[in-house]
Amino acid sequence: MEPLRSMLFTPGHRRDLIEKAIRSGTDAVIVDLEDAVAVDAKPAARQLLSDLPPSRVPIFVRTNGADTGMLWDDVVAAGTSGVAGLVIPKAEDPGIIKEIDGALTALELSDGREKGSTGIIPLVESGLGVRLTYEMATASSRVECVMFGGGEQGDLVADLGCEWTPDGTGLMQARSQVLLSSRAAGIEHPFEAVFMDFRNLDGLRVESELTRRLGYVGKVAIHPGQVPVINEVFTPAPEVVEYQRKVLDEFDKALAEGLASIDVDGRMVDYAVARVARSIVDRADAAQRAENRLTQQEDGT
């Protein structure tokens, strides 16, 4: 999975809004079949997946939950559309992740597509989901991203009975546990879900900076106006990237000379420090690729 900074939800029954989302500046789009679509409109939204607008921006689909009776219709519709992946809401059952994996494999093979080309993103929105994040993350090799759903007055807040604030105090343990479980499972792209008050960009920045400091690599937007703030927060600053490139250059030279611990501008650099530097540089390079995709989308190239 390509590293992402931002993903933008858009209603799955509105082609015009999907087109706008693709051009919004987000790194990826999530076509929503769940909360944003009335029950009567869901069949039309599934049908629309077979005729999505052309996009250089990766497109994901959020399905309905496993307890709704609509999940498998969504999996079939999304799995035959060639999207980058499926976001599974209220994820709390590793067995369901395995079953979705099997269904996607059958759909890919029947369509002549590469096995494993469709990703799975569990969206954690319950106490049980928090508890079983590691098991879900390791249930399928398709899981390369796990999403923490801690939105204001959302399902997880209700389930935990905690108080939501932008500084994240009430959700700190759950947010940290999902991150820890994801990283322990080898997930390189732990993601933070939505900030509900889309007009409160200062609050969005506070929450985004908190999650970035914890180790999350990006955040989901529910409105295009949130995307610039999210992209800014999750893009490493140029001066930081410049220094980290220097760290890697000096460390690679040292390794060639048989050294694994050196001084760079008065700071010790070893394998662990170089690993952090490489992750920062990789995120910066991915951000530039995302900007390039947007430019190509706008130019029609």
Write out key terms for the chains shown.
301 residues; TIM Barrel; 2 domains; eight-stranded parallel β-barrel; two-stranded antiparallel ribbon
Give a brief description.
It is built from 12 helices and 10 strands. The protein is of the alpha/beta class.
SSE layout:
Elements: E1 6-11, H1 15-22, E2 28-32, H2 42-48, E3 59-62, H3 71-79, E4 85-88, H4 94-111, E5 119-124, H5 127-131, H6 133-137, E6 145-148, H7 155-160, H8 172-184, E7 189-192, H9 201-214, E8 218-221, H10 227-233, H11 238-256, E9 262-264, E10 267-269, H12 271-299
Parallel strand pairs: 1-2, 1-8, 2-3, 3-4, 4-5, 5-6, 6-7, 7-8
Antiparallel strand pairs: 9-10
Helix pairs in contact: 3-4, 11-12
Tell me what the structure shows:
The two termini are 23 Å apart. This protein has 301 residues and is α/β, with parallel strands linked by helices. It has 2 domains: 6-234, TIM Barrel, CATH 3.20.20.60; 238-296. It is built from 12 helices and 10 strands. Helix 3 runs parallel beside helix 4 and helix 11 (238-256) crosses helix 12 (271-299). It has an 8-stranded parallel β-barrel, surrounded by 6 helices. The chain has a two-stranded antiparallel ribbon with strand order 9-10.
